[in-house]
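Researcher: Quick test of sequence recovery. Tokens follow.
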């Protein structure tokens, strides 16, 4: 009876260890067959992705949010991914968005949206974007408004009417703004890795 009890406990432990585990964080590094995730607690985990199901309609960017469902145990910072999911809204938004300048038709204006929530303005000296976030279909932009001898912090929330890999349409009340994504002509992962990647400003 004792032997049977030991076997039963061992089987229960083995089953518990093999249950799928979900890890959430941001992409710290990625290659053809691996992705490294940094969790909110600072844990660094590298997952093998060779046979993983991928739900990343807008790609996978260094610094972007990601959820990994892993198989088996995570040992010494390594695991095997069964599924990788990245929010399309976030990854589509990362990049350079521009529209014609209403004052000078030969110029464009807009903003850069960087990974991990940083932002900057393009040819907009009185509206200095510094941060952004997205939740569902709402895009929030924050920064400083400069004018009349004073600088004021601002935060504005827009409803996303349309978003894909080339067009962004946002609405705030009756105001509707349309932007086009500027193609940088380089690897999207490198282009979205930070300010040194060659964004316009």
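Model:
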């Amino acid at each position: 009876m004792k032997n049977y009890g030991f076997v039963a406990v061992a089987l229960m432990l083995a089953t518990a260890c093999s249950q799928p585990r979900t890890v959430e964080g941001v992409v710290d590094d990625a290659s053809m067959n691996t992705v490294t995730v940094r969790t909110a607690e600072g844990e660094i985990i590298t997952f093998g992705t060779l046979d993983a199901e991928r739900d990343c309609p807008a790609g996978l960017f260094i610094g972007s949010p990601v959820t990994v469902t892993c198989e088996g145990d995570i040992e010494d910072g390594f695991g095997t991914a069964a599924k990788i999911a990245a929010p399309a809204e976030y990854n589509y938004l990362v990049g350079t968005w521009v529209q014609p300048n209403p004052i000078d038709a030969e110029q464009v204006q807009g903003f850069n949206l960087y990974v991990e929530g940083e932002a900057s303005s393009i040819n907009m000296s009185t509206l200095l974007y510094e941060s952004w976030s997205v939740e569902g279909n709402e895009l929030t932009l924050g920064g400083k408004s400069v004018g009349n001898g004073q600088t004021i912090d601002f935060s504005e929330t827009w409803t996303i009417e349309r978003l894909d890999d080339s067009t962004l349409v946002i609405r705030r009340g009756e105001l509707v703004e349309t932007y086009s994504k500027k193609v940088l002509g380089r690897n999207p992962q490198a282009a979205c890795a930070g300010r040194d990647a060659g964004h316009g400003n």
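The chain has two domains: 19-86, 90-197.
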